[in-house]
Amino acid sequence: MQTHLRRAAEAAEAAANPVDDALICQPEAKRLAGGVSDMTMWRWRKEGVIPQPMSIRRRNYWRRGEFLAALEAAADPAGRAA
Fold first, then answer.
1. How many domains does the chain have?
2. Residue 60 half-sphere exposure toward CB, CA atoms < 13 A
3. Could you please report the per-residue DSSP string of 55-79?
C-alpha cells in the first residue's frame, strides 16, 4: 500500500491546482491518486486514508484540496517533510 500512496502523493503534487474547492469525480480522483482501481479507492475510504465522498445523484465527489491533502498525509504518516 505504501508504494501506491507514495505514487499517489507524487501525482497529486504534480497536479497541484489553486482551485482547491473544486469538486472532483471518482475517475478524476483515481487519476490524481496515480491511476488506482475502484477497489483501492474503496479500501482507502474504509481505512480512513481518504475522506468519505459526498454523493450527488449516486456519484461520488471530493473537494480537490481535501483529497490531495489526504493523499499527502497518507504518503508521509510520520509527518516528515519530503
1. 1
2. 14
3. EETTEEEEEHHHHHHHHHHHH-TT-
Segments forming the whole domain that contains residue 25 = 2-75
- The arithmetic mean of pLDDT across residues 10-31, rounded, is 79
Closest CA to 41 of 30, 51, 31: 30
Distance between CA atoms of residues 7 and 19, nearest Å: 22
pLDDT in tens, 24-79: 999 999 999 999 999 999 999 999 999 999 999 999 999 999 999 999 999 886 65
Residue 82 belongs to some domain of the structure? no
Count of residues for the chain? Answer: 82
Question: Residue 40 in contact with residue 56, Cβ under 8 Å?
Answer: no
Task: Indicate the pTM of the whole model.
Answer: 0.70
From CA 68, how far away is CA 35, in angstroms rounded?
14
